């Protein structure tokens, strides 16, 4: 666990505006906390910097195509940054895959009031809530199993303890050092810039999910026995 003031103090030491044993002033702490939370928000736009994905259940009702999700939506939760294609529909104990469409994809549907089990959805990323529109329109009650990326939790105070996976406190300190350096009218050293880039890469490497290679239909995979003499 780490606190905002610990990250801020280390970041200030890294750019040489705070000496060992010193503490930031109240104004410096306030300004840097604002910068740190802004940084936390921007990291959410990089999927490989998000250490956990969220799974939530959105009840779908018959004959209703659109649903809001967010702080004041039909499903009250933190606003998703992105709804992922791994989401699916659960109906009568059976899981059905769905396709995530773009707006042009959805606009190609000519009869939007067709009922059935949804095969796809379009996510309108409004603020503060997003709107999910399904097609076909759910014909009965069912559940949308929504996987999404959410913004990394921000610090509410300088002393709040935030639990993060190993390496995040180091990365935040180095990234914040580079972020706040212009405000203190200093240049980060080459070493700080290199370690900042390295800490980002280590986290992204940990969070990377390498897709499993799928062979095209008709081509056997490595689990299929094939007698070459029959070819």
What does this structure look like?
With 231 residues, the chain is α+β, with helices and mostly antiparallel strands. The chain folds into 2 domains: 103 residues, P22 tail accessory factor (Gp4) (Hypothetical protein yqbg); 97 residues, no CATH class. The chain is elongated, with a radius of gyration of 24 Å. The termini are far apart.
Instruction: Report, as a whole number of angstroms, the end-to-end distance.
Output: 61 Å
Q: What fraction of residues sit in β-strands?
A: 15-25%
Q: Compute the number of strand runs.
A: 14
Task: Please state the second-level CATH architecture of the largest domain.
Answer: Orthogonal Bundle
CATH level 1 class label of the largest domain: Mainly Alpha
**What is the fold named in CATH at topology level of the largest domain?**
Hypothetical protein yqbg
Largest sheet: 5 strands, antiparallel
Radius of gyration of CA atoms, rounded to a whole number: 24 Å
Which regions contain 5 or more consecutive residues with pLDDT less than 50?
Answer: none
Q: Looking at the structure, what is the overall shape?
A: elongated
Total of helices: 5
- State the domain count: 2
* CATH H-level homologous superfamily name of the largest domain: P22 tail accessory factor (Gp4)
**Into which percent range does the helicity of residues fall?**
25-40%
Nearest-integer average pLDDT: 91
**Which sequence of SSEs, written as H and E, runs from N to C?**
EHHEEEEEEEHEEEEEEHH
Query: Could you say which structural class the secondary elements and strand pairing correspond to?
Result: alpha+beta
């Amino acid at each position: 666990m780490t606190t905002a003031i610990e990250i801020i103090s280390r970041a200030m030491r890294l750019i040489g505006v705070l000496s060992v044993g010193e503490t930031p002033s109240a104004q410096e702490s306030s300004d840097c906390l604002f910068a740190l939370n802004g940084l936390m928000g921007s990291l959410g736009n990089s999927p490989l910097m998000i250490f956990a994905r969220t799974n939530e259940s959105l009840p779908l009702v018959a004959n209703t195509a659109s649903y809001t999700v967010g702080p004041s939506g039909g499903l009250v939760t933190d606003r998703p940054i992105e709804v992922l294609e791994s989401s699916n529909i659960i109906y009568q104990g059976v899981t059905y895959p769905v396709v995530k469409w773009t707006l042009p994809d959805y606009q190609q549907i000519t009869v939007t009031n067709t009922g059935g089990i949804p095969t796809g959805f379009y996510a309108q990323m409004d603020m503060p809530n997003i709107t999910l529109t399904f097609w076909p329109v759910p014909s009965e009650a069912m559940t949308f199993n929504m996987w999404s990326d959410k913004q990394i939790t921000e610090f509410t105070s300088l002393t709040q303890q935030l639990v993060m996976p190993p390496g995040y406190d180091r990365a935040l300190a180095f990234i914040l050092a580079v972020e706040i350096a212009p405000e203190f009218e200093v240049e980060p050293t080459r070493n700080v810039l290199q370690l900042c880039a390295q800490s980002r890469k280590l986290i992204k490497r940990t969070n990377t999910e390498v897709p499993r290679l799928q062979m095209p239909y008709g081509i056997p995979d490595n689990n299929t026995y094939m007698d070459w003499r029959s070819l």
